[in-house]
Amino acid sequence: MAASVTPHLLQNAITSIQLGIEDYRSNDPRRTISAVRNFYAGVLLLGKQCLLEQAPDAGPMQVLATSFQPMPDDAGGVTIVPKGFRTIDLGELRERFKQFDLDWPKGDISGLQRLRNEFEHFHSSAQDTTIRQVIASCFPLVDGFFEILDRNPAQQLGAAWETMLEEERFFTAQKASCHLTLKSLPWCAELKDVELSCPNCGSALLYQVDPNNDDPSSIEGRCRACDDIITAEGFVSLVVEAIHGGDDYLAAKDGGEPVVNDCPDCGQPTYVQNGEIDGCYFCQQRAASECARCKTPMSINDVSVNSPKFCTYCDHMMTKDD
């Protein structure tokens, strides 16, 4: 059973990716939804095929089912069998890759998943450049899946692969061009391995109008995909979120001190303190490391909201004395 179904799933994956690219290349707005749905489904099926080929003697549902249940084996024990016909989603696919000791390839499918969900539940305002970006971002992932399968993607996908390659080249060039406009800013080097995300359309193609500007508080930001204007405050917040948002989330989840804080000088939520970095990405100020009154060491969370020189306790006591 596995031997006959496995090639069928692979062919479905290839066909879905090809149809998605054909829909995209048609330049027909009415086929945008179909392009995103087909392409996403194809990439997901390709990942599932990687799992199936790690267990060629197992039935597809034994590998891909999302839940299982014990059943008597008529020999005094139990056997674990699939429950229902629902197969794993993207998050479960990544988890099962770990269970199968497979490395998840590079590439970002989150943007494609977000677009798919938008189209499924409500009208999306995604621009053509955003669609191009999600295809380009998935390129390394698709390439990695085919590498696991030991198959040539160009041979398998034909013209669709060449289109994906073109979009990857286009997006890489566009992203490099946008990144170049940020070169004078003090934290530009930290953006090398992260992607910014436009709050309007989700594109990573954000830039500043004046590439010579080196002052974060003077950034005139724009999105190359939707042409949305982004204020300096908003732009720097996006930068901090892209670089430190994950660490801040984990710190909060583990009950630790926040990594991202409100700055006591400018009030923006762009002050980062993580043991290596201690300062505001917006105003470039650094909070006092000890209280000017009691000389006690302070973290950013100890600084009084009324005065960056004093700890909360001393500021309260001085205010009380007044």
TL;DR?
By secondary structure, this protein is mainly alpha-helical. It has ten helices and eight strands. The strands form three sheets. The chain has a three-stranded antiparallel sheet. A three-stranded antiparallel sheet has the order 6-7-8.
The largest sheet, given as strand count, sense and whether it forms a barrel, is: 3 strands, antiparallel
Strand content: 5-15%
Distance between the termini: 84 Å
Radius of gyration: 25 Å
Strand order, main sheet: write it out. Answer: 3-4-5
Q: Roughly how much helix do the residues carry, as a percent range?
A: 40-55%
Throw out a few tags for this protein:
single chain; 322 residues; mainly alpha; 2 domains; three-stranded antiparallel β-sheet; 10 helices; 8% strand; globular
Give an overview of the whole structure:
By secondary structure, the chain is mainly alpha-helical. The chain folds into 2 domains: 173 residues, no CATH class; 107 residues, no CATH class. 48% of the residues lie in helices and 8% in strands. The protein has 10 helices and 8 strands. A 3-stranded antiparallel beta sheet has the order 3-4-5. Strands 6-7-8 form a 3-stranded antiparallel beta sheet. Helix 1 runs antiparallel to helix 2. It is globular and about 75 Å long. The termini are far apart. 34% of the residues are buried.
